[in-house]
Design a protein that fits this description.
Number of strands of chain A: 0
Strand order of the largest sheet of chain B: 2-3-5
Oligomer: heterodimer
Radius of gyration of chain A: 21 Å
Distance between the termini of chain A: 37 Å
Strand content of chain B: 5-15%
Helix content of chain B: 25-40%
Shape of chain A: globular
Order of helices and strands of chain A: HHHHHHHHHHHHH
Number of helices of chain A: 13
Number of strands of chain B: 5
Radius of gyration of chain B: 35 Å
């Protein structure tokens, strides 16, 4: 797509950069609207309710109505708030989650940026969200907000370590940190996906249990990084009102929500990319029309949505962890497991 | 050694119990919702439900028993006596054959005050005040809860009042005349005694 745009507008034209950023942004907004609705429907049906039913068919316009309401709301800035931080925080959070999209390959023809350090960039830039959350918590000058922000920082600092270990084990397998290359390494039928040991001979069967463990660890840590139940202690409605966004109203609040849901898709997309072949069709090139660039977008989003659904499913199943339990899970369970896992995978790759 | 066993057991339990929980919620995803979408679907009301009152003025005889039974005094009733030869309503009789001897120019119920106790319903001799099925009649102004049930127009009320006044005057005159006559008749024997 970059090539195509450069052909139209010429090398280095500003329009190339503007248009390249549009697809993830549009996708993000539409996804957030759809996912909020989906979340409500899934939660409702899991509790034997119906959820929103009044706005449109089965309430599919509910989130549009909600956004319309939020746009009309008064924008309140608390008197005691640290105005600069308070105003800036939602945008920082949004930038953090949006920047992660720049390295996610939506299809073989589209990736926001072709830098070779894609995965590293995503891991680094998604920590930017934490800065925004801290700014929001501190800037609100509200004890609940500050508690939420502190918890969020503690949580993300702890959970980033197993995440990176697990991601490293896949990087070791693929021999690249470029997400596009990782996806291309998994081309072919679905048994070439890394969750099934990746491409290679029968010896990969030894690897499958370790990859499964790393997938499990990645999924758990991704829940923690997006502040979702059972790791939603930064927002903990029943303890902290709404955590770090307690004081926010109207569009600023909507921005937090948007970036939260965008983040959800970002981690799901990375899970799909690393373990489930990214935009690869499960049938590989055996059925060519299922592996065209547009179908690849479909496969990618479909895989992401499966993980989104599992996130929602987990959210409405599990209770929230206590802070000490949260730390226990990260430092005493996930980190040793992911570290041993990385060692074994590296050893396998070395011996192969 | 025991604590190591405990450690792995905990991890296993953590994963296993989560799986059980997920199974339960997933099965609920496909069970039928218990929600009743209220304005579209309604629950059947219980047999002895008490709702908004209605007064069938065709049967009302203006006996005032409902107003007297009301514990919060939310029923306001006024009556005008019927002059002889006049008929209340079309027939002058209620549907169960009672003669109507009173016009009812006002029959007002203030539902903002009403406590829906149904005590007014039982004493009614003609069963003209009863509970309907309507229970949802919220409004923004308190005046909207004052319901007027009478079927008489203001002109009719004035007319009937004048008629009654005229009749009463006539009666009073008659009475006065009769009293005068009686007094004269009484006076006569007295005169006779004097004589």
């Amino acid at each position: 797509m970059l090539q195509f745009l450069q052909n139209i507008f010429g090398q280095g034209s500003i329009w190339v950069y503007i248009i390249m950023t549009l697809p993830p942004l549009v996708f993000m907004i539409i996804f957030a609207l759809a996912a909020v609705w989906l979340e409500r429907k899934v939660s409702a049906h899991m509790q034997d309710r119906l959820g929103p039913m009044r706005t449109g068919y089965h309430g599919w316009l509910q989130t549009v109505a909600d956004i319309t309401k939020l746009l009309q709301k008064e924008d309140i800035i608390p008197v005691a708030a640290d105005k600069k931080l308070y105003i800036l925080a939602p945008y920082v959070v949004f930038i953090g989650s949006f920047a992660a999209y720049s390295c996610i390959p939506f299809s073989s023809q589209y990736i926001g940026s072709t830098i070779s350090l894609g995965l590293f960039f995503i891991v680094a830039v998604s920590s930017f969200v934490t800065v925004g959350i801290m700014m929001a918590g501190w800037g609100s000058n509200n004890k609940y907000s500050l508690f939420g922000a502190m918890r969020s920082v503690a949580q993300i600092v702890s959970y980033e370590i197993p995440t990176v270990f697990v991601i490293l084990s896949i990087v070791v397998l693929a021999g690249s940190i470029n997400l596009q290359e990782i996806v291309q390494a998994q081309s072919g039928w679905f048994w070439n996906w890394y969750i099934f040991g990746g491409p290679g001979g029968w010896s990969k069967i030894i690897l499958i249990p370790f990859i499964l463990v790393s997938f499990l660890i990645y999924y758990v840590t991704s829940l923690a990084e997006t502040n979702r139940t059972p790791f939603d202690i930064p927002e903990a409605e029943s303890e902290l009102v709404a955590g770090y966004h307690t004081e926010y109203t109207g569009m600023r609040f909507a921005f937090f929500f948007l970036s939260e849901y965008a983040n959800m898709f970002a981690v799901s997309a990375i899970a799909a990319t690393l373990f489930f072949g990214g935009w690869q069709s499960p049938f590989g090139d055996a059925i060519p029309f299922l592996n065209t660039p547009w179908m690849q977008v479909f496969w990618f989003i479909a895989k992401g949505m499966v993980f989104i659904f599992i996130q929602m499913w987990l959210r409405w199943t599990l209770p929230r962890l206590r802070v000490d339990q949260l730390m226990y899970v990260s430092w005493k369970v996930l980190i040793p497991f992911s570290f041993v896992n990385l060692l074994i995978v590296s050893l396998f790759v070395m011996l192969r | 050694m025991n604590s190591v066993k405990q450690y792995f057991n905990n991890i296993w339990l953590g994963l296993y119990t989560v799986a059980i929980g997920l199974k339960i919620t997933f099965s609920h995803l496909f069970t039928r919702a218990v929600t009743i979408q209220y304005p579209d679907e309604r629950l059947q009301l219980p047999e002895r439900e008490r709702n908004r009152l209605f007064v069938n003025m065709d049967d009302c005889i203006g006996c005032d028993q409902c107003a007297r039974a009301c514990p919060v005094s939310c029923i306001y009733l006024e009556t005008i006596k019927v002059t002889p030869g006049d008929i209340v309503g079309r027939t002058g009789v209620t549907s169960n054959g009672r003669k109507k001897a009173l016009y009812v120019p006002t029959f007002t119920i203030d539902f903002a005050k009403c406590c829906y106790c149904q005590l007014c319903v039982f004493p009614c001799p003609t069963e003209c005040i009863y509970m309907t099925e309507v229970f949802e009649f919220t409004d923004f102004e308190r005046d909207k809860f004052i319901y007027e049930f009478t079927d008489m127009t203001p002109e009719q009320v004035v007319e009937k009042k004048q008629k009654l006044d005229a009749y009463q005057k006539e009666q009073d005159e008659k009475k006065a005349a009769a009293a005068k006559a009686a007094a004269e008749a009484k006076a006569k024997p007295a005169e006779d005694i004097k004589k």
